[in-house]
Amino acid sequence: MAASRITTKQSPQISSAAQGAVHIRIKSSQSSGERLSQSRSLVLQESDLPPKPISLHRRNQSQHDILGPGRTASQQPSLKGENLNVAKISEGGRKQRKNWMVTWTLLTSDQLLLHKEKPGGQTDAVLLCGAVIDWTTQKSRRKNVFQITTNTGSEYLVQSDSYSTAIQWHDAIRRTIDSSTKSNGGFPLRRSNSSDYLPKHNSLPGYGSASPNTKQRNQVHRRSINMFSSSRLKHNTSDATDKNGVKNRLKKFIIRRPSIKTLQEKGLIKDRVFGCHLSTLCEREGTTVPKFIRICLDAVDKRGLEVDGIYRVSGNLATVQKLRFIIDQEEDLDLDHKQWEDIHVVTGALKLFFRELPEPLFPFRFFSAFVEAIKIRDSKHKVEAVKKLVQDLPKPNQDTIKLLFSHLLRVLDFSRKNLMSTQGIGIVFGPTLMWPKLDAGNMAVNMVYQNHIVEFILTESQNIFDLDKK
Question: What residues have CB less than 8 Å from 188, skipping those under 6 apart?
Fold first, then answer.
């Protein structure tokens, strides 16, 4: 194959752009069956090429350390590499264990490079565009610590034993953050639950000068962003859809949730005894005195009247709570069982029942009336006033008080053995059977009246409740 080379000088129009040479190489084949081919190549040396414009977009990482025509040297960091103490405490919003390491730190135009060893080792690049830097004293006990939070949620602690060094690095990084964020048109936006950045939108400040070709090229990938008057972004469509879906599922769950009555009918929820209103409990049991009170008083009558300190001595709290749990579960209760052989557990459960009533055995609206009645000096008028108040009580309260005080009279009959007096019973049952709805007065004064009322009713029980005299 014969080849000929023709070398000519470049035309003036081309030479004005770059002083290069145009080489034209023509190849021809002697064979008639082969096609003739011609190739021309325009070869320009790299030094003769016109300077390429430097993209300021954050994704062009390879161009960040190069000064462009429009950027001055003052925008580049002036700090040299230095060993600093660095700890990464969060990555992508997830907290990490704080581990301080001495790293060789370099500051570029938009990154903070952290070399675990000297340059050439493993490097962690901290993007400073849109980051936040601030001094902190809560994240570490060390001195001269500042925190860098990137726009992806990663957090770094940087520290130096020298205050001047820490100040110098803090100020330099802050200036780099401001310049890189400003050069990239502000804080970059990311899609929800994604590390992808939203394309620039012409409705945001600084993006209105995009060329028509750029707008047409990004039209398919661009997502609409609605702006509030305060320039805050609304949630995107996918987030709104997810939230509406969660709301709808919760709404359906609440609507389909069975009522308390249905759960009670199925036996999933049982009515409590402790903490239940007295009238409600009596209505449910079809009686005027709760069943639990009757069985407790019967047990004390059988084996507790002669026990020293009956009602004054407290029973084992854990056993009392166990008894309460059995009663609330409406299980069969046999107080003659050996696990309830301590009679103080039974009396403790009975007192706990009265204390946990939503409204005391002597209702709130009668508290002031009983206090005024007990202040009457004339004994006969005092008995009549208290008797009238007892008769005005609701039927469940009246019958329960009558049954309880009749039992306490039997306890006093064995006072020589159980060492319980009228005053002792008043101290025990006064705050247990009655208390004011709003304790606005003196608590000590109220307690004195409570004790006196119980003592007086106990002393005059035969006249107040018309009991048969023995």
Answer: 58, 129, 130, 151, 197, 198
Can you list the pairs that 183-187 forms with residues at least 24 positions away whose Cβ atoms lie under 8 Å? 183/56, 184/56, 184/57, 184/58, 184/129, 184/130, 186/130, 187/130, 187/151
Nearest by Cα to 282 from 204, 142, 397, 163 = 397
What CA dihedral angle connects 272, 277, 280 and 286, to 10 degrees? 80
At 236, the amino acid letter reads N
- Whether 366 and 343 have beta carbons less than 8 Å apart is answered as no
CA distance 133 to 135: 7
Instruction: Assess whether pLDDT exceeds 80 at residue 214.
Output: no
Looking at 73-211, list the stretches that DSSP marks H as alpha helix, in order from N- to C-terminal side.
Answer: 163-183
Beta bridge mates, 82: 105
C-alpha span between 47 and 43 (Å, rounded):
12
pLDDT tens digits along 86-145: 998 888 878 888 888 888 888 888 888 888 765 556 778 888 888 899 999 888 889 999
Q: What is the pLDDT of residue 354?
A: 95
